[in-house]
């Protein structure tokens, strides 16, 4: 592990109160690591504080955490990447354990599952409920073993980072990171890590309802993209049920009387059934396209040397 290049990546927006402390902690814990921050149009002294603390400062003009992470992933070259927020809520001391788990297990991602003190207000009840709801929804769709899919504290292999498309723009980027690993069946794990309350002068950039909705929409969109046959198959089932409910009385009346008095209902039921079969057809076609795209992504991923295979 000593020969491996380690990079600590910190996307930042107005974290002038905490960023210097985070950088100093990582310098002490990982003295051989290079620390990069990506300043995302901060209006305070974040960039100056980071530079004075010894970090390499990058700038991203497109607003959003996803844009900042994309810039860091594209610009930084290393063997092991530690991604963490600059608000001093994550336990820096967990990084060596996470790196050790990544290297020993030859994994591609280790997620720091946040564990807040029961008396702490670091993890509001609304955030806990939303995280559990989204984690459960993702588990149902993708079969994930993660309990905290929204954690911003992660360790990656180079193979993961350089194969990650980074399409998200905001806080939904954590969801995209998780689904990227699941869709390619990467070896991953999760390690509990303490989660602390933000300092008094530091404010959260996360908006519970707005960002929760965006994350949910991202999961549904990626569900459609990664498992189209199941997605459109559900649409087929729903449309078929609606069509049968509407059409059954019409058919039974025709059988008994030989007449179709509710002609508009019969047309509607037929149209809905046709839409159902159209949805199923789209699912079959897109499933073939998705399989080919996933194979190409998998081959590209395998073309990048894994941990310990750089020679």
CATH architectural type of the largest domain? Alpha-Beta Complex
Beta strand %: 5-15%
- What number is the mean pLDDT? 85
Distance between the termini: 14 Å
CATH T-level topology of the largest domain = Spore Coat Polysaccharide Biosynthesis Protein SpsA, Chain A
Total tally of structural domains: 2
Largest sheet: 7 strands, mixed
What is the CATH C level class of the largest domain, in words? Alpha Beta
Task: Please name the defining characteristics of this protein.
10 helices, elongated, 13% strand, 311 residues, Spore Coat Polysaccharide Biosynthesis Protein SpsA, Chain A, alpha/beta, seven-stranded mixed β-sheet, 7 strands
Q: Can you put this structure into words, describing what you see?
A:
This protein is α/β, with parallel strands linked by helices. It has two domains: 6-224, Spore Coat Polysaccharide Biosynthesis Protein SpsA, Chain A, CATH 3.90.550.10; 228-302. It is built from ten helices and seven strands. A seven-stranded mixed sheet has the order 3-2-1-4-6-5-7, sandwiched between helices. Helix 5 (125-142) runs parallel beside helix 8 (208-226) and helix 9 (228-257) packs antiparallel against helix 10 (263-302). The model has no long low-confidence stretch (mean pLDDT 85).
Secondary-structure map with pairings?
Layout: E1 6-12, H1 19-29, E2 34-39, H2 46-52, E3 56-59, H3 65-75, E4 80-83, H4 95-105, E5 109-116, H5 125-142, E6 154-157, H6 158-163, H7 173-183, E7 188-195, H8 208-226, H9 228-257, H10 263-302
Parallel strand pairs: 1-2, 1-4, 2-3, 5-7
Antiparallel strand pairs: 4-6, 5-6
């Amino acid at each position: 592990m000593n020969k491996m290049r380690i990079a600590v990546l910190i996307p930042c927006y107005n974290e002038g109160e905490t960023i210097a402390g985070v950088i100093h902690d990582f310098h002490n814990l990982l003295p051989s690591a290079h620390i990069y921050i990506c300043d995302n149009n901060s209006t305070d002294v974040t960039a100056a504080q980071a530079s004075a603390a010894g970090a390499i400062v990058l700038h991203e003009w497109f607003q959003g955490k996803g844009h900042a992470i994309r810039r860091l992933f594209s610009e930084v070259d290393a063997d092991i990447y530690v991604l963490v927020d600059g608000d001093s809520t994550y336990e820096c001391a967990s990084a060596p354990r996470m790196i050790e788990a990544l290297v020993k297990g030859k994994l591609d991602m280790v997620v720091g599952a946040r564990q807040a003190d029961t008396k702490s207000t670091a993890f509001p009840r609304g955030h806990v409920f939303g995280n559990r709801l989204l984690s459960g929804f993702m588990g149902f769709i993708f079969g994930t073993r993660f309990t905290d899919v929204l954690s911003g504290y992660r360790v990656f292999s180079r193979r993961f980072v350089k194969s990650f498309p980074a399409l998200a723009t905001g806080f939904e980027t954590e969801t995209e990171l998780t689904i990227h690993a699941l869709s390619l069946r990467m070896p991953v794990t999760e390690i509990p890590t303490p989660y602390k309350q933000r300092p008094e002068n530091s404010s959260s950039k996360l908006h519970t309802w707005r960002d929760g909705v965006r994350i949910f929409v991202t999961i549904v969109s990626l569900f459609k993209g990664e498992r189209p046959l199941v997605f459109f198959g559900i649409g087929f089932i729903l449309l078929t049920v609606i069509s049968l409910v509407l059409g059954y009385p019409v058919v039974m009346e025709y059988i008994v009387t030989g007449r179709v008095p509710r002609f508009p209902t019969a047309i509607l039921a037929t149209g809905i059934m046709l839409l159902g079969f159209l949805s199923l057809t789209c699912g079959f076609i897109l499933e073939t396209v998705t399989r080919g795209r996933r194979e190409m992504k998998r081959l590209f991923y395998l073309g990048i040397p894994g941990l310990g295979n750089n020679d």
